Each structure stands twice: as structure tokens, then as C-alpha cells.
């Protein structure tokens, strides 16, 4: 009788041991005759990449007008603008499935025959040269509101004859967010009373190169 009970106990132990090493519901490992337990799993790798979709408003033929005397100036889609630098605000819209950082590189080119001098800081209004100070400002909003230039502000970058890059000017939400749109415009000032009067040939061309980076999602470790 004792031998029979002992045999039943050992059988129960063997059943428990075998079930504890099962890898998954669809894989069953039983006690082999050679005493070895093994199983192989092949897994196919995949990489999750975001879907990037950025829309910039149409800037075909975009014009930026210098208006040193701040007259009513109609140019580039703006009617009767009186700013020292007249241009239409433009939009960047994120339709990606991930948040996007917006970087920008700005450059100003003075054409041959122009006497414009690009300044590195806001003008005082007493300049005797045909000075221009211009900067790009981006706001994460439906419209951009001009602010005094501050190089430390992340959403502003000045134009110069050498390219200047500022990273992470704004971060746009993905399609599930509400802040998916940024608006940008060129602001600045123009010397109103240079020693030599302004002429139509005194112009400057502006270039903005945008780049976009997907934001790495943050995860919480349990």
C-alpha cells in the first residue's frame, strides 16, 4: 500500500514538473527518452517608423518688400502694408502620426547693384547706410504676433549673409493633438534716413530652409 501511494506521489510530481516548463499554450514539451528538454523559436524582425507628412503653404513667387518710408505697400499678397518689411505670413501643418520638431536655416543675399547692408542687430533708426535687419519668427498659432527680436528666444532667428541655423524652433503635435499648425513671417526694420536715398535697386533676397525631426515618444517604465 505504501509503495502504491509513493508511486502516485511521484507521478504527480512529474506531471507538475512537465507543465512548469511549457513555453506557450501551443507548445508542449514532454519528457523525452534522452532526458533533454529543448525548443527553438524563430521570430521575424520588424521596425516601427513614423509616417511623416508636412504641408507648407504655397510660397510660389513669394515676395518680401522693403518699405523704409513705411508707405502703404501692396506686395506678395499683402494689401496696403505699412511695416518696414512687408510679407505675407505662411503656415506649416503637421499631418504626421508623430510630433515634429521644426528647424530652420536662414540666409540673406544682397543682389549685384544693391547697396543694402545686412545688420546683425535691431536698428536704432540713425543709420547712415542702407541697413536692413530681418528675422524669422515662428509661432505655434493660427497667426504670428510680432515680438522684439531676442536671439535667445527659440522661435526667432536672424537673417545674415552667412547661413544661420536654429534647431527646435517649435514642436508641432501629431494628428491626435491640437497644436498641429505653426505660422511664420519675416519681421525687422529698415534704415529710414540713410546718407544716400533708397532706390528701387536696393533689395535683398531671403531664403529659409526648413528641416523636420520626429520626436521620440517618452515611455513610462512600470
Structural overview:
- By secondary structure, this protein is mainly β.
- It has 1 helix and 13 strands; from the N terminus they run αβββββββββββββ.
- It has one helix at residues 2-20; strands at residues 54-56, 65-66, 73-75, 78-81, 85-86, 90-94, 100-109, 116-118, 130-139, 156-158, 164-172, 181-190, 205-214.
- Strands 1, 6, 8, 9, 10 and 12 form a 6-stranded mixed sheet that branches.
- The longest helix has 19 residues, at 2-20.
- The protein is elongated, with a radius of gyration of 33 Å.
Architecture blueprint of SSEs:
Blueprint (H helix, E strand, L loop, with lengths): L1 H19 L33 E3 L8 E2 L6 E3 L2 E4 L3 E2 L3 E5 L5 E10 L6 E3 L11 E10 L16 E3 L5 E9 L8 E10 L14 E10 L8
What's this model, at a glance?
With 222 residues, the protein is mainly β.
Kindly list the characteristics that best describe this protein.
mainly beta; 6-stranded mixed beta sheet; single chain; 222 residues; 33% strand
Shape: elongated
User: What is the typical, i.e. mean, pLDDT?
Assistant: 87
C-alpha Rg (nearest Å): 33 Å
Helix content: under 10%
Total strand segments: 13
Structural class: mainly beta
What gap, in angstroms, lies between the N and C termini?
53 Å
Poorly predicted runs are 1-23
| Share of residues in strands | 25-35%
Order of helical and strand elements: HEEEEEEEEEEEEE
What's the story with the biggest beta sheet? 6 strands, mixed
